[in-house]
Design a protein that fits this description.
single chain, 123 residues, alpha/beta, three-stranded parallel sheet, 5 helices
Length: 123
Amino acid sequence: MNLHTLFDKPLIQLTTQRYDKVYTTNPAPPTFYQLTSIDLDFNEAIREEFNLNPADSTAIYNVDPAALKEFTEDYYKDSGKDIHHTITEQDFLHAAASNVRGFVNVGETTKIDAFPNKEVESE
Protein backbone atom coordinates (compact mmCIF):
# COMPACT_ATOMS: atom_id res chain seq x y z
CA MET A 1 0.00 0.00 0.00
CA ASN A 2 1.27 3.44 -0.91
CA LEU A 3 1.60 5.50 2.26
CA HIS A 4 1.10 8.77 0.43
CA THR A 5 -2.44 10.06 0.25
CA LEU A 6 -4.04 11.96 -2.56
CA PHE A 7 -3.61 15.08 -0.45
CA ASP A 8 0.16 15.04 -0.05
CA LYS A 9 1.19 14.05 -3.58
CA PRO A 10 1.40 17.65 -4.84
CA LEU A 11 3.64 18.49 -1.90
CA ILE A 12 5.81 15.44 -2.57
CA GLN A 13 5.97 16.31 -6.26
CA LEU A 14 7.14 19.84 -5.50
CA THR A 15 9.89 18.71 -3.16
CA THR A 16 11.07 15.45 -4.74
CA GLN A 17 9.76 15.19 -8.33
CA ARG A 18 8.89 11.57 -7.50
CA TYR A 19 5.98 11.23 -9.95
CA ASP A 20 5.63 11.66 -13.70
CA LYS A 21 2.24 13.34 -13.24
CA VAL A 22 0.07 14.17 -10.25
CA TYR A 23 -3.72 14.46 -10.48
CA THR A 24 -5.62 15.64 -7.46
CA THR A 25 -9.05 16.81 -6.39
CA ASN A 26 -7.75 18.39 -3.20
CA PRO A 27 -8.48 22.13 -3.28
CA ALA A 28 -6.13 22.96 -0.40
CA PRO A 29 -2.75 23.80 -1.92
CA PRO A 30 0.52 23.75 0.02
CA THR A 31 1.70 26.77 1.95
CA PHE A 32 5.07 28.43 1.87
CA TYR A 33 5.25 27.71 5.61
CA GLN A 34 4.93 23.94 4.97
CA LEU A 35 7.44 24.06 2.16
CA THR A 36 9.94 26.02 4.24
CA SER A 37 9.77 23.41 6.99
CA ILE A 38 10.23 20.35 4.75
CA ASP A 39 12.37 21.55 1.83
CA LEU A 40 15.78 22.60 3.12
CA ASP A 41 16.86 24.07 -0.23
CA PHE A 42 13.74 26.20 -0.37
CA ASN A 43 14.24 27.22 3.26
CA GLU A 44 17.73 28.40 2.42
CA ALA A 45 16.51 30.23 -0.69
CA ILE A 46 13.83 32.04 1.35
CA ARG A 47 16.35 33.02 4.02
CA GLU A 48 18.77 34.36 1.41
CA GLU A 49 16.11 36.16 -0.66
CA PHE A 50 14.56 37.92 2.34
CA ASN A 51 17.73 38.18 4.47
CA LEU A 52 16.27 36.15 7.35
CA ASN A 53 18.21 35.08 10.41
CA PRO A 54 18.60 31.26 10.26
CA ALA A 55 18.43 31.11 14.05
CA ASP A 56 15.01 32.79 14.12
CA SER A 57 12.38 30.21 13.16
CA THR A 58 9.62 32.84 13.24
CA ALA A 59 11.35 35.41 10.99
CA ILE A 60 9.35 34.25 7.96
CA TYR A 61 6.16 35.57 9.58
CA ASN A 62 7.53 39.12 9.35
CA VAL A 63 7.98 38.97 5.56
CA ASP A 64 5.33 40.42 3.27
CA PRO A 65 3.08 37.44 2.43
CA ALA A 66 2.47 38.64 -1.13
CA ALA A 67 6.23 38.71 -1.76
CA LEU A 68 6.60 35.25 -0.22
CA LYS A 69 3.79 33.90 -2.37
CA GLU A 70 5.30 35.33 -5.54
CA PHE A 71 8.77 34.01 -4.68
CA THR A 72 7.40 30.55 -3.80
CA GLU A 73 5.30 30.21 -6.93
CA ASP A 74 8.29 31.21 -9.06
CA TYR A 75 10.62 28.87 -7.17
CA TYR A 76 8.34 25.85 -7.69
CA LYS A 77 7.09 26.77 -11.18
CA ASP A 78 9.03 23.98 -12.92
CA SER A 79 8.40 21.43 -10.15
CA GLY A 80 4.68 22.07 -10.35
CA LYS A 81 4.26 21.82 -14.12
CA ASP A 82 3.12 18.17 -13.87
CA ILE A 83 0.57 18.77 -11.11
CA HIS A 84 -3.05 18.90 -12.27
CA HIS A 85 -5.80 19.96 -9.85
CA THR A 86 -9.49 19.47 -10.52
CA ILE A 87 -11.63 21.32 -8.01
CA THR A 88 -15.17 22.55 -7.64
CA GLU A 89 -15.63 26.29 -7.61
CA GLN A 90 -17.88 26.07 -4.56
CA ASP A 91 -15.58 24.02 -2.33
CA PHE A 92 -15.01 25.78 0.99
CA LEU A 93 -11.33 24.77 1.00
CA HIS A 94 -10.89 26.49 -2.34
CA ALA A 95 -12.41 29.64 -0.87
CA ALA A 96 -10.20 29.41 2.20
CA ALA A 97 -7.05 28.76 0.17
CA SER A 98 -7.84 31.79 -1.96
CA ASN A 99 -8.14 34.07 1.06
CA VAL A 100 -5.77 32.73 3.71
CA ARG A 101 -2.16 33.80 4.06
CA GLY A 102 0.46 31.28 2.99
CA PHE A 103 -1.27 29.20 0.32
CA VAL A 104 0.44 29.08 -3.08
CA ASN A 105 -0.80 28.11 -6.52
CA VAL A 106 1.31 25.57 -8.36
CA GLY A 107 0.48 23.48 -11.34
CA GLU A 108 -2.59 23.61 -13.53
CA THR A 109 -6.07 23.98 -12.08
CA THR A 110 -9.37 23.07 -13.70
CA LYS A 111 -12.45 24.38 -11.92
CA ILE A 112 -15.80 22.72 -12.38
CA ASP A 113 -19.18 24.03 -11.35
CA ALA A 114 -20.72 21.61 -8.86
CA PHE A 115 -24.10 23.29 -9.21
CA PRO A 116 -24.58 24.10 -12.89
CA ASN A 117 -27.36 26.54 -13.70
CA LYS A 118 -27.57 27.71 -10.06
CA GLU A 119 -26.11 30.75 -8.33
CA VAL A 120 -23.87 29.12 -5.69
CA GLU A 121 -20.53 30.67 -4.77
CA SER A 122 -17.88 29.78 -2.21
CA GLU A 123 -17.18 33.32 -1.03
